[in-house]
Amino acid sequence: MRRKYGVADTTFSRIDMGAIAIKTITKEDPDAEIVRYTVPGIKDLPVAAKRLLDSGCDGVITLGWVGKSMLDKYSYLAASIGLITTQIITSKHVIDVTIHEDEAEDEEQLKNIAIDRVTKHSINLVKLIRDGKNSLTPFAGKGLRQGYGNAGPIED
Amino acid sequence: MRRKYGVADTTFSRIDMGAIAIKTITKEDPDAEIVRYTVPGIKDLPVAAKRLLDSGCDGVITLGWVGKSMLDKYSYLAASIGLITTQIITSKHVIDVTIHEDEAEDEEQLKNIAIDRVTKHSINLVKLIRDGKNSLTPFAGKGLRQGYGNAGPIED
Amino acid sequence: MRRKYGVADTTFSRIDMGAIAIKTITKEDPDAEIVRYTVPGIKDLPVAAKRLLDSGCDGVITLGWVGKSMLDKYSYLAASIGLITTQIITSKHVIDVTIHEDEAEDEEQLKNIAIDRVTKHSINLVKLIRDGKNSLTPFAGKGLRQGYGNAGPIED
Amino acid sequence: MRRKYGVADTTFSRIDMGAIAIKTITKEDPDAEIVRYTVPGIKDLPVAAKRLLDSGCDGVITLGWVGKSMLDKYSYLAASIGLITTQIITSKHVIDVTIHEDEAEDEEQLKNIAIDRVTKHSINLVKLIRDGKNSLTPFAGKGLRQGYGNAGPIED
Amino acid sequence: MRRKYGVADTTFSRIDMGAIAIKTITKEDPDAEIVRYTVPGIKDLPVAAKRLLDSGCDGVITLGWVGKSMLDKYSYLAASIGLITTQIITSKHVIDVTIHEDEAEDEEQLKNIAIDRVTKHSINLVKLIRDGKNSLTPFAGKGLRQGYGNAGPIED
């Protein structure tokens, strides 16, 4: 059956992460239907994900962008709890990609982090939805990272 | 069909943000019905939003005002979680506008932030309710800000 | 129809705030039925409110007292989230009055804060339950405070 | 009708608080049925309480023990939210007794705190379940403490 | 009846904790069916646990790995709340094993902590699922630790 993916992004973000996600999902699963939903900021992402799942999406990727202040981090915490609650209620995956403005020292580095993280997690979403609960098992414990190079496994 | 918007505000706020929201929504969507609900403070906003949605509103904007202390910020966190839970349960948008007293150095600046943030988010609410999930997509990744000037997108 | 109010208080509190709430509600709405529920501490208030609402109360006021330590503040956060969840589930108001031991420099000041806050919020509860969602709208944006003097609105 | 109490404790605790609770409840309500449930640590207590309530307990006392680090405190916060959610969903009391390792300067003091707190809260549970919502009202605002001597009421 | 256990692990982890859990559960309960579910990171564990329980697992062990930054700790808090909510909704155990990168001074120590913690909690899960609510009662208050040596009970 043809899969249906949701992509939820924001106008707060300084990078068009939605476009990166759509491009990656399309490449990974060319037959897929993709539905995009754009909201103002991270605190609007849980309901966007919920509405996408309500409308028949098999899974969703959310693309959040978070400022540097303590209040931004509290909003991040509230949004994270909401995204997890959405998943528990629906029993469906919502892969949560978040970029924090204080992760990088300049805009170029921030852009590279965002591209890497969105791309890798878009692939993760396709694998989980299309190939199921053991699709990522070959990489269990391998220290994979999104946005940075992999940490790798701790060797014996 | 005629849209119905909820506006939830507080007596704690030092600016009549409800009036700004009603004026903006009326201008953006002249046919709309608008229902106002005033409560004491931010921790009362989630149930106000829930009751407005229960009574048939298509979407709600909440207008919170938060003090400077750590306890105020904890209340902000609890209220934010509650507003997100309300949206997940109802699958409807509640745009959460919050002004923090420590955002600005004087009252005039605080007022300008409030006016800008309420106006922009009232327009966001109308767009999402009336025009749907892709109404804001042209602005995805554009670094829009409410209360301040836009950050803008990170250019290549 | 005769209104029914719930008053939930604690044995942890150092002031009999329940008595103040009952006296105020009785004065404001003489026909009302008032049901009191006393629990050990703030983390027991959400279930007390839930049970009062289950038994037919139209609204509840909870009267919490919080110590000075970081752990007390975490308990405050957990209780606040619980009180908001209770309201979302029931779609009824639970006005949350909390006194923090570190709000004042001596016991007399603390007592004055408690009396003022409980009295004002008891009146808020009556207004919301009896007179509805626009009963407080004349005071929207007026910078009202409970426990302290009003901050007042920011003037043009 | 014969009452049924749940006692949920942990293997993480360094004191057998379950035994103290059972002894106290038995003394206060000799006809009661008591069901014990032992889990590894505090994050397992909410589901233990939920399962005890599912199996017919009228109320539950949980007996948590928390380490000194910031992560332990985050776990305490998550567990507290869970215990409150359990109560809201079931509309039944779960009295939450927690001992923090950094509450005392030595083991003997910690033991005294634990004995006092468990004993007093076990009595609170019996009173609330057997005698109802006004059983503790004579002590409302009296500044009762569990684990320490009472703070007492603020006198006029 | 043959028991069914869920094992949820991550690709973020630097140690293959899923393999340790499966080996331990198999040894403790040779007849058991074990279902593995691998996700990217800790914020995906609650829905993995929920889906495992939906598909008939009697209980689940989740195996999280958490970085050193404050944001990692916020994610830990959100995930912990989600795992507890999952348990409350399903009334089933989800034993939450978490390794924090800052728990140890070098990789070897971190590996020893992980092996010890996963092994002991896998045994805890089998005991709770197979032998029920009093299977751990002989160890109540004994100061058991996972990842470190036991603290032991406070003696009289």
Automatic annotation (TrEMBL), chains A, B, C, D, E:
<dbReference type="GO" id="GO:0009349">
    <property type="term" value="C:riboflavin synthase complex"/>
</dbReference>
<dbReference type="InterPro" id="IPR002180">
    <property type="entry name" value="LS/RS"/>
</dbReference>
<keyword id="KW-0808">Transferase</keyword>
<comment type="pathway">
    <text>Cofactor biosynthesis; riboflavin biosynthesis; riboflavin from 2-hydroxy-3-oxobutyl phosphate and 5-amino-6-(D-ribitylamino)uracil: step 2/2.</text>
</comment>
<dbReference type="InterPro" id="IPR036467">
    <property type="entry name" value="LS/RS_sf"/>
</dbReference>
<dbReference type="GO" id="GO:0009231">
    <property type="term" value="P:riboflavin biosynthetic process"/>
</dbReference>
<keyword id="KW-0686">Riboflavin biosynthesis</keyword>
<dbReference type="InterPro" id="IPR006399">
    <property type="entry name" value="Ribfl_synth_arc"/>
</dbReference>
<dbReference type="Pfam" id="PF00885">
    <property type="entry name" value="DMRL_synthase"/>
</dbReference>
<comment type="similarity">
    <text>Belongs to the DMRL synthase family.</text>
</comment>
<dbReference type="GO" id="GO:0004746">
    <property type="term" value="F:riboflavin synthase activity"/>
</dbReference>
<protein>
    <recommendedName>
        <fullName>Riboflavin synthase</fullName>
        <ecNumber>2.5.1.9</ecNumber>
    </recommendedName>
</protein>
